[in-house]
Structures are given as C-alpha cells and as structure tokens.
Amino acid sequence: MASHETPTLLIGTAPVRPADVALAAENPTFHVKLNPDALSLIGRSREIVESTAASGQRVYGLNTLLGSGRDTAVEEKSLLAYQVQVVRYHNSGVGSSLDRAAARAVILTRLIGFSRGGSGVRPETAVFYAELLNRGVFPAIPREGSVGSSDLTQLAAVAAVAIGEGEAFDADGTLVPGAKALADAGLQPLVLAPGEALALVSANAYSVGVGTLALLRLQHLAELADVALSLSLETIARYDGGGNLSPFSPAIQAAKAVDGQRDSAAAVRRLLSGGWLEDVRPEVSVQDALSFRAAPQTHGAFRSLVGQLASALDVELNGRGDNPLVDVESGHMVSGGNFQPMQLALAFEGLRLALAHVGISSERRIAKLYPPQRASRARHLQAAASGESDLAQEELPGLLWYSAAGLLAELKALAAPATLGAPTLSADVEDHSTLAPLALQQLEKSLDAAEKLLVIEALTASYLLLEAGAAQPLGKGTGAVVGRLADVLADRPSAPDLVERARTELRDAVGREFSEEGEKTW
Fold this sequence. Notes:
Oligomer: single chain
CATH superfamily of the largest domain: Fumarase/aspartase (Central domain)
Structural class: mainly alpha
Strand content: 5-15%
Number of domains: 2
Distance between the termini: 18 Å
Low-confidence stretches: 389-394
Radius of gyration: 27 Å
Number of strands: 9
Number of helices: 19
Helix content: 55-70%
CATH class of the largest domain: Mainly Alpha
C-alpha cells in the first residue's frame, strides 16, 4: 500500500492480498496505480500477442470464434469489428446491478489480472481500467449470468462501458449511457485491439473480487460468533448454573490441533477475562450442553474454512487465469483451463455448510437462554398487574427466538450444493462449469442470515445480563459489548430496528475488541 494523501494501491508484479482488494473496493476515494514493472510485463505480454497474430498461427479467440466456433477462423480484416461483437454478445447478464463496492472489486480484480502478464492486453488498456476506478466510473453490472467458467457477462458489462456502450450509474445513482459516463469522467472510449475483447471478459473477476468482500465479512462473523458465545456463557452461568470454562482451557485446546479451534477458545477466554467466570465455582455444572462445550470445535472449523477461502482467493488474484494464456517465459500463447476456479467455488460451498453449523449452535444456545426469560416475564406480569412495574420498559421486544429459528432454517436451506447444477453449453464443448458466482451469491445470503442470528443471541444474552444486574462482574470484553447494547435496548426500538442497530454496534464493537487486543489471526 503506497502512502499518499489520497490512499493508493500500487500494483506491481508482487503478490496482492485479498484484504487490499477489499479495502480499495470499499473505499471509492482509493486510487490504483500500475508501477513500471507491471507495465513492462504487460507490454512484453502484448508483444507476444502481436507477433503470434502476425505469424498467422491460429489461436483461440485471437483469430478464431469462441465456444463451439473455436475452429472457425476470423478474417484479418474483420478482427477489429470482431472485438466489439465479442463484447456485445457477452453483455447479456440479467438481474439487479452490483453495488459500487462490488463493481469496483470486479474492475480492480481484472486490472490485477492484466498485471500478471497472462492476458496480452496493451498497457494503455490496463491504464484505462485503472482510470475507470480513479475517476469514479460505476458500470451497471448485472448480478446473474455467469456459470463460473469465466464471469463473462459481468466482465462484458464493464467492457461495454469501456468501449462507450452499455450503461453506468452517475453520481446520483441514475442509469446513464456508458458513453456519457466516460465523457463525464473525461475519458475517451477504448478502441480494442485484436484479442483484447476476450482478454477483458474471460476471467473470474466477479467471483474473486466480490469474494474478497465476502472474506472480510466472514472474518468479522468468526469473531462475532465468539462474542455471542461468550455472552451466552455468562448468561447461562447466572440463570442455570452453567458456564463451565474448562472446554476452553489451553490444556483441552493443546490436546487436539484443529486449525482455528485454539483461536476461538483463546478469544472466549480473553473476552471473559477479569470476570467472575474465571473464578472456580463449586456449584458450576460439570458439563454444559454441546452448543457451549463444543463451540470451539464448531467455530474453529468455520475459521479454518475462512482461512481456506483466503488461500483460494490469494491463488486466484495472483495467478493467471487467462485463456489463451500468454506465457511470457516461452513466448507462446497456450490454451488451457485456468479460468475454471474450482477450488474457489468449493470454498464458497463449504463455508455455507459451516455457517449452518455455527447457526445450529447459536440457535440452541438462544433456546436455553429463553426459559429464565419466560420465568422473568411471569414475574414482570405479576408486578405489572399490581401496578409495581412498567413491563414495556423491561421486556426484550418480541419473541426473537422465533426469528432465530427462521434464520436457522434459511441457513440450512442455503447449505445445499450450488456447484453441481450447471448444464452443458456451447454444443457440449463447455460441458462442465463451477457455478462459483451462484455459490458466492448463496454465501452472501448465508452471511446475512448468520450475522442476524448471532446478533439475536448477543441481544438476548445482553438483555438477561442487564436484568440480572451487576452483582458479579462481567468479563472485560463481554462487559464492553453489553454496555453498547444496553444503550440500544434502552431506546426500546421495534424488533427490526433493534436487530439492525445492534448489528451496527456489534460490527464496531467486535472490530475494536479484536484489533485492540491483537487477536486478529487472519
């Protein structure tokens, strides 16, 4: 990351981290710049394309049609017109448009792909994509249309704007013609050279770029899961004699080296440090339910899969997924299948299943928190009947447990495989696809449901802890979270507003708790 007054991501030939892509995508003031090494490599790559075209060698997409037309030559006089045809043909996505962060992630990821030297675009084309980001051009990119053998339709929507066609959003969020968006940004439309159209659209920049945004949310959710668990441990200790911390002890965690498990248990110990659960209590139950006792194993497995996604994104960002691949070392253009991101698609798949398991444990903990609340409610009802209490001020709004149960059902449904459903296409030439975009979109839905479920757990536990009073001190971390949620609960918002406000508070609180204590392990 370069240090300028304007935050800048400097792209060279060194590896790029998924977190940097997500950061630059989410912040529209972020600029990107290609350094001389990257521009030199892109230039050498383009020289190979031009020499191959001049030799008359038949190369897929350079001087042939695509898909089932792979063995049909394109006449030299038609090559420039063919570039426009390729973009128009693939600009056929449907559905709602990506938001600005996702659109920036798509453009940035494709730009990084150019910098790896496998695409064969001209340096000026790569610089143009950088300027789309730097000048705030926001193409309208349809969400649906890719089967995961390159995100052709999403990338064609970007390419269409680049050549002065397609649509984009202006500063007010209004759809305008792509040519107007370029003119407003002070850019002239690109005139594509032979082979560039395929290079612009044939990559997995949607799955990879938007995947980096999902990765940040997943990392937050892994931390939120441990926060919600810690709050529930303190609550079950107060109301039901539970809260046994022995399953989180270093001795237990050292006995089985599961990736992520030790990190989860350590996070719980830190959140509860300084609180009364650290004291040996003779009355504590010898064992809590598995949703408490085996939570480090569940949360740890989830953390491990988040790490696998990070690795898969790192491979895709810094590899060369182009077809044909311009191999600078040999000086040849080679057909291949690196546009098939199977490892990434399966990472998206596995995480949805893991989120469902995290959700099962959370919902079962919520269920165990509700019986004391029902008893408390009966006491409040009796007090209210005698005029001694204002029930409305003391109740947790609504039966949030029911919402939690509904969210869990959604998580279970979303855990079904998404990558096995693609039909064969293009006269049975494209007879296998990853469906990585669908797997990612289902993961985004799972993330949303799981976060709401964990927020409900944190809210329920915090409400009960506040009701129990301050007879025993909370942990340093859990106490800070309860303090934040106390302000939300005190305003007595409606249930939807309550969850959304708590969600916002927890995003900030979780970020502070883990960053200040140096517990981030990503």
